[in-house]
Write a structure and sequence with these properties.
elongated, 11 helices, single chain, mainly alpha, 0% strand, 262 residues
């Protein structure tokens, strides 16, 4: 292979990297394409990206991390700061992915890729959301992260992509409250169930569960009013969110998307 042809291929790869990122995130100065084509940093970047595109995410993460460690002052280190998080996310190493995206935002707060990094942080939590009868903490984190993105960067393409994800996370939280509320209702903990149904009505009025929550709230209020005074006064208002499935509770329907734009 001639040197000129090799240079053309490498330059094309770098352009594809920038395009895949969505914009000119790694610009500044003279641009990464001005670096020598045969630098070790670029070779490592090419290998890491090839691994990523072939689905070898574990190997890609290791190579991008090596690029960060061995060539911290290379222009490719900026690419690695972000791409290592992508590779960790794809390989389901969620804690490491979160740390990578947080580091990118901290180290490059004015970079054009910050909205993407926030979006990916939201996806870390989104990918770990459990069914409505389980711990909702990841759904809450996803919702909060996507909301942060939409507030800080409302005109970003990633804010647009985050909106349906935030809606899904919000529906999951509402469904969780409905599941727990029904559990309390069926176990005659009416005051606790009322608390959950009211939360659905006030916090999640637009997710399609309003009428169901209202009907259950009315039934719970009626049942609670029929209890002896001693039982009404002794009942606790609520319990913590459950981290294990509730026995014998039918889960409400929740529309969940499994497509991923990346």
């Amino acid at each position: 292979m001639s040197r000129v042809y090799k240079q053309v291929l490498i330059a094309a790869l770098l352009l594809m990297l920038a395009a895949a990122a969505g914009c000119d995130w790694f610009g500044g100065g003279t641009g990464i394409q001005d670096e020598a084509f045969d630098t070790p940093a670029q070779v490592l970047a090419n290998e890491a990206e090839t691994m990523y595109r072939e689905g070898n995410y574990e190997e890609s993460a290791e190579l991008f991390q090596a690029l960060k460690d061995r060539f911290p002052y290379s222009r490719y280190a900026l690419l690695a700061d972000l791409r290592v998080g992508d590779a960790y996310l794809k390989s389901k190493r969620y804690e490491e992915a979160t740390l990578a995206f947080e580091d990118f935002i901290r180290l490059h707060p004015k970079n054009d890729a910050v909205p993407y990094a926030i979006y990916q942080m939201g996806m870390v939590s989104f990918d770990q959301m459990l069914t409505p009868d389980r711990d909702p903490s990841n759904a809450r984190k996803a919702m909060d992260t996507f909301r942060r993105l939409m507030k800080q960067y409302p005109s970003s393409e990633w804010a647009v992509k985050a909106q349906p994800r935030m809606q899904e996370a919000t529906r999951r939280l509402a469904a969780h409250d409905m599941v727990v509320g029904k559990y309390y209702f069926n176990t005659k903990k009416y005051r606790a169930s009322m608390s959950r149904f009211k939360r659905v009505l006030t916090n999640y009025p637009d997710v399609g569960l309003y009428n169901e929550a209202m009907n259950y709230l009315r039934m719970a209020q009626e049942k609670w009013s029929q209890l002896p005074k001693r039982e009404r006064e002794g009942e606790s208002i609520d319990r913590r969110d459950l981290s294990t499935p509730l026995p014998g509770v039918e889960q409400p329907d929740v529309l969940l998307g499994d497509d991923n734009p990346l």
